[in-house]
Design goal:
mainly alpha
Length: about 150
Amino acid sequence: MDKGSERVSSWGRFLYERQRDPILWAGGVLQGVADVLGLDGSPHIQSVLRLVSERSEWWGARAIFDQIRQYRLNEGNSLAIGEDQLLRLAEIVAKLAHNASGETPLFDREAGWQIGPIVYRIASEVPEVAHRALLASVLGGWPVEE
């Protein structure tokens, strides 16, 4: 891993671990990214957003994760890069809800650390400055440049 990637990865861990309610934060980030990319009507994204808003439904997060993962595998290279990254983000949010539900087996506990780096990557592809600023806002900022 090069120095820049390592810095962004460490920032992602710090960003996630400082959240008081990481699942609601992750859901807000997912909503913001979906809005910027114009994919907020995606049934997969809507499913995750509904899940996040109802703590009593988190037990069903693994099934939602499985549906999104299967969709990504079936679609393969036909997904636009932004859509694929958004769906990866949705998978992570579902993983977080699943882990918080107490259902087993658990997903990797580091899953949330990827949220910042994924959004940072998406923002690098977004041409509009206002949209990049919106992404930074929902995320809580960008990594500090060295």
